[in-house]
Amino acid sequence: MVARLSSIRRAATQLHITEAAVSAAVAHIEKQLGAKLVAKSGRGIVITEAGRVYAEYCRSILGLMNEAHAAVQQAETGRLRIGVVATAGEYVLLRPLASFRDRYPDIELSLSVHPRDVLFLELQHHETDLVIAGRPPRNTGLVVRARRPSRLIVVGSAEHCPDPLRTTWLLRGRGSGTRDATLALLDDLEITPPTLTLGSHGAVLAAAREGLGVTLIHSDAVSQDLESGALQVLPVTGTPLDRPWHAITTRTPTPTTRLFLAHLLDPGEVGANAFHPA
């Protein structure tokens, strides 16, 4: 907590103990390790390199302890922590998750929505059981268990008929895989159009409907807008891009996680939203 907040005082407040108790605990760990974990900086502290390294190990240890607890519970009465990127959370996962809850009502479910880099880091530290996102980075020890087809397409307002080579491109915030794919596409097209970064998936869609620009987006997210005529698919060289959704775990998924994966792969339970084995 000290490393996360970079503050003895804030850590004490978060943990509901005294600052003296936190300082004494840190000093005790430093003595055991023979290493300095924090250093004074003005009126506050900074975390040393040794402190950052040790905190990362502690984060993984705490995650593994929680995972170990879940691993020995029966699958049907366990706990499942799912992390998703925003688009998957809104358009891919909710229906399968609802049918899973109906099928296994005693399982404790939690869902968190973060940029993919945050999700993969949480999964590496065993703070999340399963992630639905794009492909994970290599050499992380994460395992793709299932995939679901999806494409990235360029869309814009049907009313304003924008020229994608000249108009503004609407971007998601930093850390978004779709943003990275958009910037790579613009490089491939060798164009440098104006861009507008918006904070959320919903804001990007709303701006596209109003004719503020065009955007590269998962086809799952715009099916209703295309059917209603609010948006249209724009022909852009190099698109559509195949960008399947991935169901990702660590090498040792819990029984409840494996139960959810089996549910995701079952067309009889989730219909067209079913994933396919990796």
Automatic annotation (TrEMBL):
Keywords: DNA-binding, Transcription, Transcription regulation
This protein's name: DNA-binding transcriptional LysR family regulator
Domain HTH lysR-type positions: 1-48
Membership in a protein family: Belongs to the LysR transcriptional regulatory family.
Species, as recorded: Nocardia tenerifensis
InterPro entries from the UniProt entry: LysR_HTH_N, LysR_subst-bd, WH-like_DNA-bd_sf, WH_DNA-bd_sf
SUPFAM superfamilies the UniProt entry points to: Periplasmic binding protein-like II, Winged helix' DNA-binding domain
GO molecular function, one term: transcription cis-regulatory region binding
